[in-house]
Amino acid sequence: MKPLWEEFNQLGTEMIVTKAGRRMFPTFQVKILGMDTLADYALLMDFIPLDDKRYRYAFHSSAWLVAGKADPATPGRVHFHPDSPAKGAQWMRQIVSFDKLKLTNNLLDDNGHIILNSMHRYQPRFHVVFVDPRKDSERYAQENFKSFIFTETQFTAVTAYQNHRITQLKIASNPFAKGFRESDPDSWPVAPRPLLSIPARRSSSLSPCLLAGSMEQEKDPNKASASTSRTSVQLHHQLLPSPEALLAPATYRPLAYQGLYPGASSHLGIPRARPAPYPLPNVRTNGDQGGLTLPAGLGLLSPTAVHLGPGQDSQ
Fold first, then answer.
1. Is the four-CA dihedral 158, 162, 165, 169 of positive or negative sign?
2. pLDDT score for 102
3. Helix, strand or coil, per DSSP, at residue 257
């Protein structure tokens, strides 16, 4: 990933550090040559400060400026590759990736993550350690390892990206950041919905006549073709109210409380004409038949069933 590292380095690479730990992107990857195929090696990384300064980002000039002296050094830690130790043949077989390495700013971290100070600059270092099988390997400890530094991998530790160009480049190049990418509306597979749409009804909600018509069409398509237009029109009228009901303004007449119950008190505080238990006005007793004649305007009974007497049924 050397070309990608160089592209970030030209802008000033930034790496997020969090309390829980955050993985690096670009990921540190190496290709190793020249090992003894039968010998065992351990691979590890550490991070050293580039200087003794603390930085801040100036947004008006899009540049990093020195903000003061560096904070106290964090506890020094190393990160062993999870496959260590392994034979040289295994290390040289493929690219070695440190994708499990995480950066944190938690000084009390107990997960083994690399502890860094935010707003400080660091240089990653890569170490290859030969696992010496000799009993007196301590005597050769200074000879059994080799360190590598790639200057394009230096970065500034931050808790949030400062340079918007770094943010854009990370979103564009990180496969795990596809959720932050803007999608092109022209590439959307689904066409935009119309402003007004008619929901389709299930076949079970249709009337029996429509179901019978569809069954006849399945039995005899030629016979049913003549009634296809009529069936679609009937279905259309069943699904939609009349155009007059959709377009006409509201013509509902406000119904007053006194219209239903004459003599009831109004909102102005006028008392009833007659207190209970006396009968309400407009209710006339029919002494001959023993029934009640109710006004037809109550809206409770039809005009043909207003007068009810003993032994009479409503029409």
1. positive
2. 98
3. helix
